[in-house]
Design goal:
The structure is a homodimer. The first copy, chain A, is globular. Among the domains of chain A are: about 180 residues, 2-Layer Sandwich (Ribosomal Protein S8, Chain: A, domain 1), CATH 3.30.1370; about 45 residues, Wheat Germ Agglutinin (Isolectin 2), domain 1, CATH 3.30.60. The first copy, chain A, has about 375 residues and is an alpha+beta fold. The longest helix of chain A is centred in the N-terminal third of the chain and has 19 residues. In chain A, helix 1 packs antiparallel against helix 2 and helix 2 packs across helix 4. The mean pLDDT of chain A is about 95. In chain A, the strands form three sheets. Chain A has a seven-stranded mixed sheet, sandwiched between helices. The first copy, chain A, has a two-stranded antiparallel ribbon with strand order 1-11. A two-stranded antiparallel ribbon of chain A has the order 8-9. Chain A contains twelve helices and eleven strands. Chains A and B meet through strand 4, strand 7, helix 8, helix 9 and helix 10 of A and strand 4, strand 7, helix 8, helix 9 and helix 10 of B.
Chain lengths: ~375, ~375
Amino acid sequence: MEDAVRVRAGPLKDFCVRVFTKMGVPEEDARITADVLVTADLRGIDSHGVARLRRYVNGLRSGMMVARPEVKVVAETPATALIDAGAGLGQPVSYRAMKRAIEKALDVGAGFVTVRNSNHYGIAGYYAMMALEHDCIGISMTNAAVLVVPTFGRDAMLGTNPIAVAAPAGEERPFVLDMATSTVPRGKLEVYHRLEKPIPLGWATDETGQPTTDPGRVLENFKKRAGGGLLPLGGAGELLGGHKGYGLALWVDIFCAVLSGAAYADLVYPKTPDGKPLPSKIGHFFGAWRVDAFRPLEEFKAAMDDLQRRLKNAPKAEGQTRIYIHGEKEFEEAERRSREGIPLNPKVAADLRAIAEELGVEYDLE
Amino acid sequence: MEDAVRVRAGPLKDFCVRVFTKMGVPEEDARITADVLVTADLRGIDSHGVARLRRYVNGLRSGMMVARPEVKVVAETPATALIDAGAGLGQPVSYRAMKRAIEKALDVGAGFVTVRNSNHYGIAGYYAMMALEHDCIGISMTNAAVLVVPTFGRDAMLGTNPIAVAAPAGEERPFVLDMATSTVPRGKLEVYHRLEKPIPLGWATDETGQPTTDPGRVLENFKKRAGGGLLPLGGAGELLGGHKGYGLALWVDIFCAVLSGAAYADLVYPKTPDGKPLPSKIGHFFGAWRVDAFRPLEEFKAAMDDLQRRLKNAPKAEGQTRIYIHGEKEFEEAERRSREGIPLNPKVAADLRAIAEELGVEYDLE
């Protein structure tokens, strides 16, 4: 990271907004999408931040993502709704779906919205965290293109299908669990591959379905769709609970896709016969529970603080100095990066400059 | 299992009902509790079936569990409720809480009920599966006495905190995920200890917080509360995702206990100064989503069938012959045991005979 340019969140967001609006995305949708991306960068989840801007630009160009989609509420009850995203960007429809879930929670105690016909929505935690300012607990899940092998299977049949849950606290920070249901994301293999390091057994399998320590082989197999892939949380087989991670991934597929009418199981980004990308038909699931529908808010927050303190103050394993609460590392990183700027990897910075040039939008980040 | 007596589910349930009613439990509550226990035995989850009858009898005797509790609805909205179980058996209040969640789902699309001041509720999957006959998706979670060590911690601070999710299908069986958020339950260590086999690294830690292969040491440490315990799904540290299993356990604690006002974090079965057990103050969380609030039921069921078939028919890893859907093994076991009877371990059978004798109820199982 020594060569990384440091940029402020504000100008980085503004740059993304210029890019998206230039691509025909309405101003408000562009602002939402930019905020989701830069929030990932602030929280240290670089893989889901502006490093992905190129993919969205390509998606909008190719027609895989629609800049001005026709978004429809397909079904609705007091506590639920189903939205068709019209193949638009994942972020604006997800932001609005989560808002609707929160409104329902404020109204009847709990609210849930599924979304179909969508695209990559960024970090799952963003939407779950939207519940916090309304004193609700939030949940967000999405399915994704296949990378993960089911227990005893040979081929990738499921996405890394993340689950995020956010719960407010009082003086302590909110609890923000934001986890892929695979042991690691694909990006982790890319890092080890670049460093020419073997990966631990339990991360991925080769094309025969056996655990492997060779990240290059797994990445090569992905490209060729030759079999193998990432392992679910718990690793290969059932000995260390791999069937549980597989079950969590399947749960996400059911809630995001079977319940909404999105693509599932062996979701791949489809193409026309002549290679033109088609909408990815990804599905999402959002929900909110109003805390004080169950229990007075101040009691809940005091108990959340106490829970966190008990864990943080508990004795540590030999050689360890700290027990973390989920989200804590990311909140600390966001504070650091708000102060010091977001480090832009030189390759990412070059990519942003290239996008600016291609589209003829101003690049003012360096 | 060669010496196991085989008994029919019906007479086994009737026996449990006699035991519970003799202990002062109302007939209907006794029937519900018996059904939850014997359903576990039918499904092959022997650790949560009648093998636990002794613990419930002891709990009712000691006053830890109240036979005729005062159950109160503390708070309610169209989609939510909070119930105080009055320190009664976990099963009857959980059955009624889940029924209420389903009624709310049928009414407004989704429903959620938390329960506080309860006791061990048996298998999490039982309640999630109650949603199936109403064409709802069900969820059930419970916290439990501490056995699980948080990532980087030395001492057990969380229960095995299971999550169960059940979703209906058409011609295929329902999806029933029912998983502890630890890598394995404590019972698994007891089995390895009896067989004098080392446990795999990733199951448990010793009293210093280091992973261990010695199940006897872990079990001994539990007794002495000397530190160490079961590892969360993903194992020790963060390399294989142990922080994710820890996060799932924490999620369950928040939903079951922080949201309801039950005990959390280092939940231990409390006692009076002179050693008399006090109510365990366990908490549960139940929920249901009505499928057709989102999507026509027949479409959902057809997609559930298709999802399952795609997974089951997918290529297998070398040396494997079958990819399972969650719940499938248990449904097959329940069919087998309905036909052939439930195998009662001789020690369990002896225990049931002893209970019958102590209470003066008829024992007609052998």
